[in-house]
């Protein structure tokens, strides 16, 4: 079990079993063990902690604490015998500065990070997206949904924004996977296991993320007929869901007539499509025109993302916007609908 404490201006407040990620507060997620330390001893910011105490609070090993200390990231004093001593304030300053929420139930990544000697903790602190994407790729290839979920959750606990996670780390890991498949280093079965693992983890993560109150806007998400690449719209759906939108997920492989019927029935404010491998350029443009006409008629906006938009001429596509990324889409949505996206 975990406890989450919300901290602002020195005022800590328990938040229940999970963290809220979107409201600009600093969250420090503690194991019950740490909560017990706090509860059992009268602790204040000058309370002196040993290296072992700090490893328990931050949920990292002794060598990581020593490395951070030696790099000057984590302040400490030394006893006459040369032992490191920390105050509670040293640890909370470190957490605050580096966004390292005490490692709540975190994944201990068993695989080495590809192409780098850095540990996963260092990669998180230094925002080394490619190392993190490499480690995430190894995790999904092992097919463990829980490890994948814990990996993504850990990034969120450490205050990675959803756009960083989706655009750089999730996107980067699957891109490398695609290259491996293209080079014949992966079987189709392995690729399917890995992608399904990612999709399942993204859904689990979404169930945990606190949602903003409803803003009474609806968005539809889908892919045209024959299109199976759905990770892009899954990410976008997660983001808008957390922002208080009502989201309806139509999924991959949807005939355009059914898409249009859904627009007429649910009257969304926004329709999001992901396109990666359309059957033909002309079929793709035909679907875009049909859907765009329908969304315009219903007063909705249409957004079409995915790599096909680059290959098939972003400027020629019948749509209101072609986002280059989730981050770009959020900026556009802010300009269209107002509000501030997290
Ligand atoms: C997973 C995967 C599959 C899975 C998809 C499963 C699923 N449920 O989604 C399966 C196994 C089904 C599959 C099948 C195929 N695939 Co495939 N696949 C991939 C892979 C490895 C990852 C795609 C992915 O999910 N990326 C991660 C997401 C997050 O990235 P993304 O889609 O680009 O989205 C990002 C942005 O573009 C944007 N975005 C995307 N959409 C949207 C929408 C909105 C509204 C917004 C705001 C933003 C947005 O936000 C995202 C985050 O930044 C890629 C490799 C790669 N380089 O991408 C190949 C890849 C896309 N596949 C490829 C191919 C060739 C195929 C097949 C034709 C293989 C075959 N011969 O059968 C089939 C076609 C299936 C079909 N009819 O659609 C090629 C495409 C090459 C090309 N452009 O022509 C790639 C690039 C692999 C390669 N290197 O050759 N594939």
Secondary-structure map:
Blueprint: E1 2-8, E2 11-14, E3 26-31, H1 32-40, E4 48-49, H2 51-58, H3 62-70, E5 77-78, E6 84-87, H4 88-98, H5 120-125, H6 129-142, H7 145-157, H8 162-182, H9 188-208, E7 218-224, H10 231-242, E8 246-254, H11 256-266, E9 270-274, H12 281-297, E10 301-305, H13 308-311, H14 326-337
Parallel strand pairs: 7-8, 7-9, 9-10
Antiparallel strand pairs: 1-2, 1-3, 4-6, 5-6
Bound molecules: cobalamin (B12).
Residues 166-167, 170-171, 174-175, 177-179, 182, 191-192, 195, 199, 226-233, 235-236, 272, 274, 276-277, 303, 305-307, 323, 325-326, 329 line the site of cobalamin (B12).
Description:
The protein is of the alpha/beta class and 342 residues long. It has 3 domains: 2-98, Multidrug-efflux Transporter Regulator, Chain: A, Domain 2, CATH 1.10.1660.10; 120-208, Methyltransferase, Methionine Synthase (B12-binding Domains), Chain A, domain 1 (Orthogonal Bundle), CATH 1.10.1240.10; 218-337, Cobalamin-binding domain (Rossmann fold, 3-Layer(aba) Sandwich). The chain contains 14 helices and 10 strands. It has helices at residues 32-40, 51-58, 62-70, 88-98, 120-125, 129-142, 145-157, 162-182, 188-208, 231-242, 256-266, 281-297, 308-311, 326-337; strands at 2-8, 11-14, 26-31, 48-49, 77-78, 84-87, 218-224, 246-254, 270-274, 301-305. Strands 8-7-9-10 form a 4-stranded parallel sheet, with helices on both faces. A 3-stranded antiparallel sheet has the order 2-1-3. Strands 4-6-5 form a 3-stranded antiparallel sheet. A hairpin with a 5-residue loop joins β5 and β6. α7 (145-157) packs across α9 (188-208) and α9 packs parallel to α10. The structure holds cobalamin.
């Amino acid at each position: 079990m975990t406890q989450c404490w919300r901290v602002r201006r020195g005022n800590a407040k328990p938040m229940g079993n999970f963290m809220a990620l979107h409201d600009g507060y600093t969250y420090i997620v503690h194991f019950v063990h740490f909560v017990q330390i706090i509860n059992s001893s009268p602790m204040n910011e000058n309370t002196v902690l040993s290296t072992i105490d700090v490893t328990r609070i931050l949920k990292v090993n002794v060598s990581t604490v020593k490395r951070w200390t030696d790099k000057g990231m984590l302040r400490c004093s030394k006893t006459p015998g040369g032992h490191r001593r920390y105050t509670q304030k040293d640890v909370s300053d470190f957490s605050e500065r580096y966004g390292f929420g005490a490692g709540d139930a975190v994944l201990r990544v068993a695989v080495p990070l590809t192409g780098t000697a850095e540990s996963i903790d260092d990669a998180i602190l230094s925002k080394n997206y490619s190392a993190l994407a490499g480690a995430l790729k190894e995790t999904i290839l092992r097919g463990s949904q829980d490890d994948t979920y814990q990996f993504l959750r850990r990034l969120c606990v450490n205050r990675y924004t959803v756009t960083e996670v989706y655009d750089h780390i999730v996107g980067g890991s699957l891109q490398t996977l695609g290259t491996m498949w293209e080079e014949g280093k992966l079987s189709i079965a392995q690729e399917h296991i890995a992608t399904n693992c990612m999709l399942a983890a993204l859904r689990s993560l979404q169930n945990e993320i606190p949602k903003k109150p409803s803003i009474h806007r609806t968005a539809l998400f889908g892919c045209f007929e024959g299109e199976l690449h759905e990770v892009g719209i899954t990410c976008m759906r997660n983001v808008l869901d957390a922002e208080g939108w009502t989201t309806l997920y139509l999924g991959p492989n949807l005939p355009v007539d059914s898409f249009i019927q859904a627009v007429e029935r649910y009257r969304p404010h926004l329709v999001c499509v992901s396109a990666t491998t359309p059957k033909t350029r002309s079929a793709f443009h035909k679907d875009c025109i049909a859907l765009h006409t329908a969304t315009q008629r219903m007063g909705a906006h249409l957004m079409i993302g995915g790599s096909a938009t680059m290959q098939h001429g972003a400027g020629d596509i019948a749509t209101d916007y072609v986002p280059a990324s989730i981050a770009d889409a959020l900026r556009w949505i802010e300009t269209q609908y107002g509000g501030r996206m997290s």
